[in-house]
Design brief:
Blueprint (H helix, E strand, L loop, with lengths): L12 E7 L2 E8 L3 H13 L2 H5 L2 H13 L14 E5 L7 E6 L11 E5 L10 H14 L2 E5 L11 H14 L4 E7 L1 H16 L1 H4 L4 E5 L10 H7 L7 H4 L3 H5 L22 E6 L5 H11 L12 E2 L3 E6 L12 H18 L1
Parallel strand pairs: 5-6, 5-7, 7-8, 8-9, 9-11
Antiparallel strand pairs: 1-2, 3-4, 4-6, 10-11
Helix pairs in contact: 4-12, 5-6
Length: 347
Amino acid sequence: MRTATPIEAAKHGTLWKVTESGLSMGTLKIPSFTARLVRWYIVWIRRAKVLFASPDNTRNSFQALYLRPQSFSPPQDLGQDISINRVDVHEWPLYRVSADTGTSGKEARPAMLYVHGGAFFREIDLQHWKFVTQAARDTGLDVLVPIYPLIPRPTATTEKIAAGLIDICRLSEQRIVCVAGDSAGGHLALAAAQQMRERQPDLAAQLRCLVLISPVLDSALDHPEVVRLSRDDPWLAIEGLRVLTPFLSGGLPIQHPAVSPLYGDINHLPPILLLCGTSDMLCGDARRLSARFQGKDAKECMPGSVQLDKFTYVEQADMIHVYPLLPHSEGAEARDLIMSFVRKNVE
């Protein structure tokens, strides 16, 4: 990618495209009716913010799921062109999702490792599987989907999970060329890439790109910009999410890169695409990571989309948490952008 100056943030939603010369800004528009409907559903029907509104609510939720775990099995109706196999690594279930691209060969396809979100205590859901399926179709990569341990299990620290993701990359017969993740999975994807670079540089050298969708970057959740944005976030809340930190840290300091990858080494990472919406409180920490790539301190926030040589940040106005996974036109545009970015970097 070429070096570029920061792209001015649009007042309303913006269509972004990856071209041969880099990221381009398309037509400005207000949030779609469907995007507003999805937001209404999350606020008033799903009442998602109630889950994180208090420490007790969050604690009760993950304890209930620990007693009665959700199914992590992939749906059966993902398409006739999609094949799914289990290729477990150690104690972790691991699914390989492949699309019939009409070509055959003896060599194993390269693969994307996709780490699902869910606040570190919820299993993979239908929207994740739909994204994985599209990734397999649109990029030509197989997609490996690990079912990693969830809070409050003792093996569910971010350091142990990141190590497990690296193990998958090390033991896979397929070359892992992309690591992607959303929300909690975005945290784990970046932490794993940072640890891989430090501990297994030869393995890290195979990575061609990282995709981070609304990632959790600083587990403290105490930056003033995060606090400010949390007031208008229809989904996430600081009070409940902070209950998770002792489980995630496993006794490590809050600014340890495994616990808060915002503070990890960002040098020598593969090209990164980071996407976040301005109605997501995690946008505050996404702006801080963008600031780091622009040579600033981690305490600083730099709002607005930007494209640098190896870092592209898309900040979408009025969009909520993990908007690229949601069923509206802005989500579809973001997914197309992701697929273009991956193809551009792995071909």
